[in-house]
Protein 1
Amino acid sequence: MAARKPSFRSRYSVLSLIRNALSYHDGWAQAWRSPTPKEAYDVIIVGGGGHGLATAYYLAKNHGITNVAVLEKGWLGGGNTGRNTTVVRSNYLYPESARFYELSLQLYEGLSRDLNYNVMLSQRGLINLGFSRHEMDLFGRWSNALQLSGIDCEMLTPAEIKKLAPLIDISPSARFPLHGGFIQRRAGIARHDAVAWGYARAADAYGIDIIQECEVKAVRRDRGRVIGVETTKGYIGAKKVGVAVAGHTSVLTEMAGFRVPLDSCALQAFVSEPIKPVLDVLLMAGLVHVYLSQSDKGELVIGGGSDAYNSYAQRGSFSTIEHTVEALLSLFPAFSRLRLMRQWAGITDISPDRSPIIDKTPVENFFVNAGWGTGGFKAIPAGGWTFAHLIATDRPHPLIEPFGLDRFRTGALIDEGAAAGVAH
Amino acid sequence: MFEIKCPWCGARDESEFTYGGESHIARPDPAASSDEVWAEYLYYRTNTKGWFRERWRHTFGCGQWFNVLRHTATHEIKAVYKMTDRAPEIEP
Ligand SMILES: Cc1cc2nc3c(=O)[nH]c(=O)nc-3n(C[C@H](O)[C@H](O)[C@H](O)COP(=O)(O)OP(=O)(O)OC[C@H]3O[C@@H](n4cnc5c(N)ncnc54)[C@H](O)[C@@H]3O)c2cc1C
Ligand SMILES: [Zn+2]
């Protein structure tokens, strides 16, 4: 383990802020370089989203591997990382997932300091809402499982929920009468761009090349092993290649000659016009397919289920918006006058059991980090951590052993449909 | 958002239909299949970016299943054909 420190051209601190204010903020160094690719690298990471950038950072930090390039076809965080609603939590049902996501949450808790970059983690608590006795039974089981996994969570009554989210309609005449819920108080949100940029800057400080506008077009192999990639900036050789391209995973694996158990679907989100503070917790209503939070700017950030069919079009279906807004108004009739300001979609890589796939592949030295689907933002630190471990050591990190491709052959699926279906 | 031309009812809004995923996946004989073959059948998908042959059901209409050849990046639909029809060729 190399514990070398990254060398930032300028460290962010109160002092550096004051110093730069005195020179009218003209003197800030660029957060990362824009190098031209070298002929070859020890490791190439395809995809400059959170997972790719975190992987590069932990390759350097935890394993001392710095001859690394991250290739991004667009701009950093322009994929799902910059499009997501930033829910960070670890309340997953099965112990395999709970362990993994809890490491991720703990890494998030120390991330701003570790990266010297404020990722604006706000642990404001997340409530799952239940609308029937049966859902409450499920929540009881779920929160017991969480407590056994050592993860904070409490059951709540409708009155307790009303206290935390006063505008919610809990009257018996509500379209979906509220029966209760459970809360993870350490759950919250973080700033998505900052997570991508913070990892990029910290990886760059280790000498890792981050190359934007560089699309991988083909994967070159020799006798079953990867030797490099053809890109829009020419051929680049690599001893190892790690793929972290979310919804485009199947496209990359097709270039390498094999298939994966994934479907790509659009997931949408939208924000309302900004209003005064009305909601300081996160709410999730899996039954009616909506979740929401209020941003620091005052916008309500709203999401729902994913579009129902395979899609690589980065825009969503209108019927999903309608469905989500209906659900929102059934909980919060008071929001009916709000206007939506922006709507967008990202292409998510959905696995059969809604759990990630981090593994080696049939092509030697070619690794995948995928299957995050609608919920991989919270997983960025642990995803990068464990993917770097796999690439560096050729062995899966113990936390991701259950998340290999072989589970589809053995049938040992980790079915997180409840924890990761609508809930992101 | 797009319209699908149901072979029985004509053009209808996408929201009247249910998606059935990739089409033309043949079920291998479970007794004679290895775990690899069975996993391939159950879980592995082509997930094409481009022209894709898929199943749809006109749930809020006639209730019939049929096949569609759709482009997954543009949503353009090139063919609608019945479950028992032969798969149309995909020109690049
Ligand atoms: C609307 C929405 C809401 C979401 N909400 C949440 C949430 O609240 N909480 C949560 O935890 N998760 C959420 N998610 C999921 C989360 O955003 C993703 O799982 C996560 O960001 C995936 O990160 P990534 O780095 O794997 O992928 P991305 O951030 O998508 O990065 C992949 C990158 O690969 C690049 N790429 C693709 N093909 C190539 C190529 N051939 N060559 C080079 N580069 C390529 C892309 O341009 C992209 O930048 C949400 C997703 C969406 C779309
Ligand atoms: Zn019909």
Protein 2
Amino acid sequence: MAKFNLKINGKIHRVDVDPSTPMLWVLRDHLDLQGTKYGCGMALCGACTVHLNGTAMRSCVLPVSAAENQEITTIEGLSPNGDHPVQQAWLEHDVAQCGYCQSGQIMSAVSLLKNNPNPSDEDIEAFMSGNICRCGTYSRIKAAIKTAAKQ
Amino acid sequence: MKNTYSRRSFIKVSAISGGGMMLGFNWFVKAKPAEILSKGNDIPPEWVEMNGYIKITGDNVIKIMAPNPEFGQNVKTSLPMIVAEELDADWKSVVVEQASYDTSLFVRQMAGGSQSVRTTWKPLRTAGASARQMLREAAAQVWNVPVEEVTTKTGVLYHEKSGKSAKYGELASKAAAIPIPKDVQLKGVKEFKIVRHSQKNVDGLNIVTGKPLFGLDYRKEGMLIAMIQHPPAFGLKLKSYDAKEALGMPGIKDVFTIKLFEEGEEMAAFDTRTFNDAVVVLGKTTWEVMNARKKLKIEWEPASETKETVVAWGQKRENVIPAGLESTESHYSKMQEMAQKPAKQLRKDGDPEAAFQNAARIIERTYTAPFLAHNTMEPMNCFAHVTDTEALLVAPLQAPEFAEKTLAKRLGLPVEKIDIQMTRMGGGFGRRAYGHYLVEAALISRKAKVPVKLIYTREDDMTYGIYRPTYTVTYRAALDANKNLIGFHVKGGGIPEHAVHANRFPAGAIDNYLAEGWEIPSNITIGAFRAPRSNFIAGAEQSFLDELAEAMGKDPIEFRLELLKRAKENPVGANNDYDADRYAGVLNLVKEKSGWGSPEKRDLHRGVAAYFCHNSYAAHVIDMKMQDGQPVVQNVYSAMDCGIVVNPDAASNMVEGAVIDGIGNALYGVLTLKDGVPEQSNFNTYRIIRHHEIPKHIEVHFVENDIDPTGLGEPPFPPVFGALANALYRATGKRYYRQPFSKELSETQGG
Ligand code: FES
Ligand code: FES
């Protein structure tokens, strides 16, 4: 066990956990931030995507020890009321089916648009291919990203 | 609190504290379907499956309970829309809440079989219309005017002559005291203002802001995390274990075993006994439990042949589960062997033997498909808090009614003491109809005497079984010298079930027809998977019909339409369970929308398929082109007939998803076994379709009619496999008989 100072969604949290604990479980089990989802635990599905210093990162393989003193943003910290342009685009296209993968999809999309404000179809497909949606909402995700890019 | 309660009628009204009205439409409280039906005459049988309720507060908030569990099929939005329509409510002022499982209030609280909208359509409309009628009568009394003169518009009552008006909320308490109307007038479908108009997902904002909606998100003070270690192979069972090291790991509270069923215990329809004994690790946090579980030293031993008694739908069945470690390779050779043997006859019309004897040409093709894992994005999980006197379970599950009785039996508690709450599900696809994870969580909580959260890792989930079965089918067609189709033979088999629907198309369209089936028992457990059986047989049948049309020199759509015409005008046999007109309707629609046969589409390779299942009709045209030896799906045109479309945009979303799911499973979906061990356990080895692999363009069209709505979650899925196989044939010049097609494709394309 060790103590870590974590900066999550602009707030400092202290946790006392094993240094190997993935951020995913720190968020979910220790900080009760349930928006970040578990899907595979092996960086294969993207459900657990958060931002580490603004860049999309799979929190299931990010040990808490590597996250100390870095800026972490989760879906809960993206905007106060769901008014981030990407969230709004998601609502406009009514993207979700079961919705389970969507926090991760949104976090990836925000990261994509930050570095590439006007992505082509190919850019979107390449960047988003790490995020699985078992319900098959991919076409709407792509459309929503394009809408958000126009904002 | 004041209750007016009518036994003969069906609606319970109560004034809620603070003014307002609560209208529960608990038809036939506590009555069993059989008793209701025997009372006879004036009670429509569909009301038996009734449930849900409306609440209106004094300040005009209308709350509509969503009775059925949501796994992405949109029922949490679409069912309340139906109530709101007849209530003539302002959809913007409606809030929707997920009802918990309650047999005293609701009856068919499940997701499965694409039945949610179909079975609740009339009851939900009646409930909305009854409440509206009572509000009108309350207004008539207060304003002292004839009730016929009271009208409504989006949540407001009006009396035009006197200029009086009132919001529903203002008169709700008063309305609650009005006797329940015997007959209510339902709206004409042309008057719909909410239904048939796209409404956004009521949980949209909660989803995009990451609210804790799912089973895995549920937490309670003092709760411990539990994980189960099941045997690494089907056909093995627990022999002994040493938990010393695991127990010494940080955060670990206990290690023990549970037994899902006692020896000889009768099982119910959706009970499964994949692994009866399991080792449980209980600890403070998920990561600690995951790590400690790795330290368990477990010895497994071969399980012997077991007998299961299953009592399902009033029938008792003995299942013999064979011993042994099974492999995919031996499965396929066993299936080949069985396919040569005589099988059970499922349907016979005319004289198929003679037709085949007299044939100028016989075409015979065999199709196979592997086990598939559901791989819901959210793995199985369940919260349980069981004490000596009661049990609370909170879980993502499709069918609490299946789990409830088993829980009561295993826990020795009356069903009234078992509270099952349904969370939003991170996908279902049939997997969550099997409530073994509730039983497991409950047994763990009872033993540990604490609230627990049972979590399956992805690996636990994927290697647990309850797979889509492995199937095969052989089709034979007899053609005469003029290339007329004179005989048709379908013989299907599988592990452990076949997929033949003997009375579906093309049965009814061919004079000499034979359907047969055979099965091979297995210790690999199987379960319903999005459109059970249809999800295989549709692809095989539609590929075969495509090949047949080619051999007969006919256009694939025209050939199907000819068969349907025959089935309509002069059907063979009496038990054809499809409507030939509606079937032809989706084919004609997809033909039109895809521009079938138009020259400008010539650079694309097109495949078509259609199917009927779960009361709805679906047809797809898939356009493909080859790029660097890989198929790229360019366009998909889908035509659906599911009657009235309650929420059009959400319905399109569902069809788009089914198309993508179908393409993904047809190309990549496969779960194989070696000596009982599943060879895929996470998404590195189990391939799921991803962003860059989906069609560039999907267009969904619905046949417009005023027929009562039928399901949509499953019907569009099965024919995708056939349309894809047929497009692949045109693109590569080769027919595809074995799923997943990507494997055959890489063999043909040289890697
Ligand atoms: S849970 Fe982290 S990528 Fe799947
Ligand atoms: S919406 Fe269900 S997994 Fe993406």
